[in-house]
TrEMBL record, chains A, B, C, D:
Portion annotated as DNA-binding: 58-77
Protein name: Regulatory protein TetR
Annotated signal peptide: none
Gene Ontology terms, MF aspect: DNA-binding transcription factor activity; transcription cis-regulatory region binding
InterPro entries: Homeodomain-like_sf, HTH-type_TetR-like_transc_reg, HTH_TetR, Tet_transcr_reg_TetR-rel_C_sf, TetR_C
Originating species: Granulicella tundricola (strain ATCC BAA-1859 / DSM 23138 / MP5ACTX9)
Segments of skewed composition (Basic and acidic residues): 24-34
Length: 213, 213, 213, 213
DNA sequence: CATTAATCGAGACGGTACGTCTGGTCTTCCC
DNA sequence: GGGAAGACCAGACGTACCGTCTCGATTAATG
């Protein structure tokens, strides 16, 4: 169902090539897609979600908040979740560069605490939970969410283990996938299902449970 | 927000008292609440959710499908999720009576495989996922879901451990809560987040990971 | 295409039966159709046409001006012209009771001057011209306009002649249809086509041209 | 409102001068206005009106049908009625050269039957009726229509009378304006208002009614 | 036995948002 | 500088449901 491409046609180079203060102001033209409109929409969507909750996000509301015509949204996205998906991915670009302190447990702790905080407390996490919720009854979105966030995130999550393996911290048969699942799933469970807090000490206890070698 | 009581005033006794022909057909009267209308609504809600997805469930749709006036729904419920919540709880009443074979690992396996199947594959599971999804941006519903399902379910989930403890199968300091979380959270994670299947062998591997004594 | 009945179900008797200030205020109920909403819509349509011209009349505008939901308009009418048609007919109900002075020429003068004034100057005339204009490219409306206004109006227009015939003012072979056409068509021509004024003296000259016996 | 001149700068001679292969195809150029685009637009407007009715004519539709960009239309016309006005006037250039048989009644009959046919049956008549309709709520258009069509047409209509006067067929005080109105207004009335047919015999009966001397 | 109270099906009402469609403006590129 | 292309803002379209309200019918308990 999500057929439309969100940011087509416009090479970054072209954008950069436009000189001066750049980001040429335009109202309908042949620049191709308006970058101003695009970002205004994504920001408006984000803000509305946080301020008014998922049900409070409407295409009409986004359009009004972004100062944009509804059709400009429908031209590039198919639904409000589609917009929110893009807004979320944009948010995640600034995502954590995993730390690499030379000690696995320390790296894991740092990474997982950050992840838990993002999921449970940040605005970005609110967007993620809304999307995951929607994905429960929208398999297309589910697929997209897995492809564009969960898989890449998995790679980022595995990074500390890979570093540790290089350092010889792990015994050879150590199953990183299983270990990761042992760490992540309780965090997601608490955030999504039981609503229990995910404190720093809780994360530490999860890590302590791991048998590394 | 959910102020209304779903099934007030009418003691189970009264229902039981009217056996045989009973279940008086009535269109507005002083029998009190119409049991026929109530069950028709819950069934219609269930069916609509499965057939048309969460967004396809509307109060008007339920009313039409149940052959009931909209107001009859609004008299007893506050929203479509409120109806679905009741429908879900009704479904869960037939829930598993936990097996008690005398062996913890066997009991756990039986119980967890059944739970996973319910969550991932059954219509009831679809309703649950929809409710949990909605609960991500509806804290009132979240509370209700935890109180009325997740907590009671936790007790059912713990039952095998309690039996084992009585039998002396567990060392004294064994943390059943932690153990349960280790078992449950990967199942929920796979169902809700990663979409991976929860096979019987996977459940067995989870159990094997537990150190019981 | 115009399938909906505009004023169903509510017998005049019932309306009359409601005494005193009557016209029960209600917002959605089982009074049947709301007379208040109905008249508010027709008035709003009338006013908008006069103030903003035909193109300026929109269903949304009518709804807003009448303080009514769009759907309430769509429930009972099919299009803005349908609404305007009803508004026009309602206006015409208060139409002239033809005078009957005992003298044909005097009666005709009175009737035609009134008609010309209505067509050219009144708000009702503006609505009529708009409808007739629309009827030029909407044959369904054309039919309805002829059936519901032009034919009945013709009967009213003929009334003075009938009275005169009863009085023996006309020679037997006098063709009233032809005479009427001779009188009416220049009036419509001036109003619709040439834009020339239709003064009282002009009407008199038209009548003078007639050879009555 | 109608500020733009519709056919500037380009003499008919030039058009005629470019025969055969010519009619230079161009997509934006320095030839000045494209005659090809202009005629394509007027034809497309005409055709759309006949095929789809007045509401079915849109600037976008004309542009698409004429294979022309919207802006090319907006550059030279202000509205769809403006385009249709030009299309209509273009059509009327081929208008009847009034016959001059030497007999007034014969000339009138010939002329009026042609006029009635044009108004009621031809595509050009459809365009005229649409414009007249629009003129009912657009006084600017009304003025233009009267200036550019109705007045000139009146002169054409009077031509038979003038010839007759030269021939001495009319008594001196004969009021040609009044006579013309007597002839024309019933025709317009039938076409625009009552929808009755305007047959040849009907036109003859109108003429017979005239007292010429 | 009449009155009263509770509930039901029905459906009109004022609203919000949907997703689609035109209209008219503007900018760029091509000739 | 005309013309093609096409993104943009604006806003009306007709539809679907929302949640509220009132009706008239039905039935049971009350007095």
């Amino acid at each position: 169902m999500i057929r439309k491409v969100s940011k087509p046609r416009r090479a970054a180079k072209e954008v950069a090539a436009k000189p001066g203060p750049a980001m040429v102001e335009h109202r309908g033209n042949r620049h191709g897609r308006s970058e101003g409109a695009r970002t205004a929409i994504l920001e408006a969507a984000d803000n509305l979600l946080v301020e008014r909750g998922f049900a409070g996000v409407t295409i009409e509301g986004i359009a009004a908040a972004a100062g944009v015509a509804k059709q400009t949204i429908y031209r590039w996205w198919t639904s409000k979740t589609d917009v929110l998906m893009d807004a979320f991915l944009e948010d995640m670009i600034q995502a954590s560069v995993p730390s690499d302190s030379g000690d696995l447990k320390s790296d894991l702790k740092h990474h997982l605490v950050g992840l838990a905080k993002m999921l449970a407390e940040s605005d970005t996490g609110a967007v993620f939970r809304a999307l995951l919720a929607e994905a429960q009854h929208d398999s297309e979105l589910a697929t997209r969410l897995r492809t564009q966030f969960i898989e890449p995130q998995r790679l980022r999550d595995l990074f500390p283990f890979e570093q540790a393996r290089k350092r010889g911290e792990l015994y050879p048969e150590f199953d990183t996938d299983a270990a990761l699942e042992q760490l992540l799933s309780p965090i997601y469970y608490r955030v999504l299902v039981s609503g229990q807090p995910v404190s720093q000490s809780y994360v530490e206890s999860l890590i302590r449970r791991l048998v590394l070698r």
